[in-house]
Amino acid sequence: MEEDAPTLPLPEPFLQFLEANDLDPSIYTAIDSTPRFIRLKPGFDACVEEVEKEVKCKLEKVQWLQGFYSLPPHVQIAGSRAYQEGKIYGIDASSGAAVMALNVSPGDHVLDLCAAPGAKLCMILDLLGDLGSVTGVDVARHRLAACRTMLQKYALGDRCRLFVADGTTFSVIPVGSRSDCKSLSNS
Ligand SMILES: C[S@@+](CC[C@H](N)C(=O)[O-])C[C@H]1O[C@@H](n2cnc3c(N)ncnc32)[C@H](O)[C@@H]1O
After folding, report:
1. What residues are in contact with ligand 1 under a 6 Å CB criterion?
2. What molecular function does GO assign, one term (predicted)?
3. Which of 65, 90, 115 is the last residue of a domain?
4. Distance 125 CA to ligand 1 centre (A)
5. ipTM confidence score
6. Domain boundary residue among 47, 66, 90?
7. CATH of the domain at 138
């Protein structure tokens, strides 16, 4: 129907592909209502109000994911002082859930394949605290550089090593690790 036609100029071959596969083109033109999420760096729980003032909206606590808050999709956190000072992370709740499913405990040695830009890597390091290690592997050197910048910003470099390597063949065991190594392979 005419009113269902997308307002974005989607290429004709793509529209044909959507039609052939019984997919609704309006999903590509709908206004994004998916919330954004932030995670507080451990120790900065008190800065919720500070962030709320800066971004001028209420943060909604994610009850099932400790340290996570949701905020409306249009809100930008990159310019906020809390973000620039490394007190909050921008990370999706689904990424947080993947890390929580790993059940990381201090002392673990975790392998994070496809690690860049490092949102989950940082969360794992925060969970480890001062014990254990994370090995981050990514095939894209420039993306791993972004990961290194994150580690510096959030002061998490001490227990992490990064490798530019293909995760399908990577095999370097952390020094002093035992059989309790955990791995996070994600895309
Ligand atoms: C969606 S991102 C991963 C996001 C990341 N885990 C995080 O939480 O921030 C996918 C990454 O996989 C990397 N990648 C793809 N194929 C790979 C491979 N064979 N070995 C290592 N890294 C790979 C890409 O370079 C890219 O940085």
Report:
1. 95, 113-120, 137-140, 143, 166-168, 186-187
2. RNA binding
3. 90
4. 18
5. 0.99
6. 90
7. 3.40.50.150
In terms of residue numbers, what domain contains 77?
Answer: 36-90
Spatial neighbors of 53 by CB under 8 A, at least 6 apart, are none
Q: Could you list the mean pLDDT of each consecutive 10-residue stretch along the chain, which spans 187 residues?
A: 55 93 84 86 92 92 96 91 95 97 95 97 96 96 97 96 96 71 63
User: Hey, how many other C-beta atoms are within 10 angstroms of the C-beta on 55?
Assistant: 20
Would you state the pLDDT for residue 82?
Answer: 93
Nearest CA owner, ligand 1 atom 11: 114
* Claim to verify: residue 56 and residue 80 sit in the same structural domain: yes
Residue 26's alpha-carbon distances to 4, 30, 63, 66, in angstroms, are 7, 6, 32, 34
Amino acid, res. 138: D
Residue 131, both tokens: 């014990």
Residue nearest to atom 13 of ligand 1 (CA): 114
